[in-house]
Amino acid sequence: MEHKQTINFGAGPAKLPPSVLLQAQNELLNYSGTGISVLEMSHRSSDFNKIINKTESLLRELLNIPDNYKVLFLQGGGSGQFSSVPLNLIGLKEDRCADYLVTGTWSAKAAKEAEKYGKVNVVHPKLDSYTKIPDPSSWTLNPSASYVYYCSNETVHGVEYNFTPETNGVVLVSDMSSNFLSRPVDVSKFGLIFAGAQKNVGCAGVTVVIVREDLLGHALKECPIVLDYKVQAEMNSLYNTPPCFSIYIMSLVLEWIKNNGGSAAMEMLNKQKSSMIYDIINASNGFYVCPVDTACRSRMNVPFRVGKKEGDEALEKEFLDGASKRGMISLKGHRSVGGIRASLYNAVTLEDTKALADYMKEFLKDHQ
Ligand code: PLP
């Protein structure tokens, strides 16, 4: 079948709003009458200063970030933060220990990295598979922990928290890389939030860190200077050359989110889109199978198998081939779990999702 356009359901780097790409294209050679591209602009120039300040003020507005929080634009990706978080925060208390919730690949990696810098306590019984969030009544939080860490959306396994963990006053840290600005969040409940931009708020290269001011200045002495939040906060993220173009793209995406109703409007759309897919899975009589508990199914990444619980690989290949003929790309599940994964970030529209839903219904009909 001929397709008119490509729909990108990739998990990241992911689809950007076409209007953002067009604006970036229009401004590529001559940004705002400067005669040069953002790609060529000094990070110490007043023009770039305006870009980074605008990006920060849009973020503050969209997330209602309280004044006692710093917003940083850093390099090293989400993985860089797996190191930066313990390097900066595990020394908050003498014991140098941290509580981790491990509900998927990304929190597991973060916990492993933190073990280099202190004691890590996984607060719940070990999970056999990453398909649920253990009930908070089974958690053993350590009151002397420097912080409690969790990943609010596990991109590989499609497990998302629909609540904010209660920590009895211990600093809460969250990796929101794959659901950042997909729904409103009460920043005041957190000590630190971080998110790589390449899923919901821009392109690869920049990672946002939102950190409460009183947590700055506790870095371990071996913390590399570029990873030290206090240094970066004091220098407005300009200790060294920041990822200028990625920050600029983020400013365009944030403007797009604002013009489209902000995080509350994103949440409504994301609920609608994900329900459209989960409803088909639920009504398919076991033809499509999502292994994740209904209470924590992600609105951002919908993983499912085709044909049977453990997936029929031939059918899954046929499903992916058919999707690709219809212009729907990057639906293959993460290599560690297989199957299919549809990522429905903010820039994926209702129409895009409907195209996938229609295809899933048609494929089901043809194979029943
Ligand atoms: N955290 C989450 C939730 C992710 O999905 C990813 C990557 O997909 C990462 C962290 C790692 O990000 P990066 O590749 O930018 O290091």
UniProtKB/TrEMBL annotation:
InterPro entries: Aminotrans_V_dom, Aminotrans_V_PyrdxlP_BS, Pser_aminoTfrase, PyrdxlP-dep_Trfase, PyrdxlP-dep_Trfase_major, PyrdxlP-dep_Trfase_small. One of its GO terms (biological process) is L-serine biosynthetic process. Pathway: Amino-acid biosynthesis; L-serine biosynthesis; L-serine from 3-phospho-D-glycerate: step 2/3. Its EC number is 2.6.1.52. One of its GO terms (molecular function) is pyridoxal phosphate binding. Belongs to the class-V pyridoxal-phosphate-dependent aminotransferase family. SerC subfamily. This is Phosphoserine aminotransferase. It comes from Astatotilapia calliptera (Eastern happy). The gene is PSAT1.
